[in-house]
Structure formats: structure tokens, C-alpha cells
Amino acid sequence: MAINATDLSTDGYGVPWGHTRSFANRQTASQSIGNGFNWLVKEWPYLVKQFSIQDSGIQIDTIVVQGVVGDALWFDNIGDNDFIPRFNVKDTLIHHESENLYKLYKLDGSVIEFDDTTGMFRRQTDPAGNKIEVTAMSVNTYNFTEVERTYTADGSTTTEQFLYNYDNSLGDYLLKDL
Fold it and tell me: Other C-beta atoms within 10 Å of 112: how many?
């Protein structure tokens, strides 16, 4: 079973942003990143790391980019921070250790950056240099509380802010309002 819902959508000013949820009752692992278990948000992509234990220590074998039910991107580690995509995906994933980021290079020229520890979305830049960027996080380091979108045209920069509030009274951070 899959359910989709668009709660908010803003397409102007560079990189689109919104809150587009999708739900699947059968995921590899049940996760909650602010909308309840097994709800994914298109605009909140994140990385899921699959590990194995080797003689040299823990090794990342596979990274899955999640965000939309049924539209995950799978990458296999081939060493030296290089990953090859599965299933004829043409995007590129590279681990930039010096920046503590994974960067997903899309075919349209946009770049999506993820925190290399938590796997959470940090920023997206389109080919024109417009950005959507997480500027503040909750104390759990998984849920962002402030996102800024910048757009520059004719030398004038416009910045929009999106503020997120969560209810964590039951121990899980659930989005209360945006």
C-alpha cells in the first residue's frame, strides 16, 4: 500500500520546496524522520547506510537515497569513497570526507548534499547557483527546524525561510507545524 499527499508546494524562486509525503507499509526498516513511521518526504531526502563488519573494521557496503516511496536510489561502495549506482541510475554519489558530506550529483546539474554522519539532507544547489539549505537542526540532529531558500536574479538576492516545529512529548519528533 502506498499513499501520497502534498501539504505545501512553492515552485518559484529557484529550487522548488514543499512538503510532499508518501507512505508505504512495507519498508526494509521502519523509520520516522518527523512524520511518523514509514512516511517519507520528497523534500527531505536522506541516506540509509548498510554496513558489514570486515577484519579492518566496519565498512559501508551500500547507501540508499530515500525520499519518495518506490523511488530510492541504490549505490554500492567500490572503495576510495566511490560508489556505483544500481538499476541503471545515472546520478553520481561521492563521499567528500574533508567536508563531512556525501554529494549526489544529478543529471540536470544540481547537487544534493547530505551529512556524512546522520545521512540527513543539508542543501541542494541548482545549476544556476540557487540554493535550499538547512540552517538549524533540532537537538536530535535528525530533524531540521529552519530551511532557507535563496534565489538571485539581476544582482538581487531573495531569501525565504521555512520554520519547522515538532512535538516530541511521546519521545519521537513529529512535525507539528511549518
Answer: 21
Predicted confidence band at 29 (pLDDT cuts at 50, 70, 90)?
A: low
Q: What is the pLDDT of residues 80-137, one digit of tens each?
A: 778 888 888 899 998 988 899 999 999 999 999 999 888 899 999 999 888 999 998 8
Containing domain of residue 116, as a range?
Answer: 46-177
The strand ranges marked E within the chain are: 2-10, 17-24, 39-41, 46-54, 57-66, 73-79, 82-85, 92-96, 101-105, 111-115, 121-125, 131-137, 144-153, 156-163, 165-167, 174-177
pTM of the full structure = 0.82
As for how many domains the chain has, the answer is: 1
Q: Is 64 domain-assigned?
A: yes
pLDDT at res. 54? 64
Q: How confident is the model at residue 55 (pLDDT cuts 50, 70, 90)?
A: low
Buried b (16+ CB within 10 A) or exposed e, 11-49: eebbbbbbbbbbbeeeeeeeeebbbeebbbbbbbbbbbe
Distance CA 144, CA 115 (A): 12
Is 5 domain-assigned? no
Residue 9 covered by a domain: no
Asked, for residue 137, whether it belongs to a domain, the answer is yes
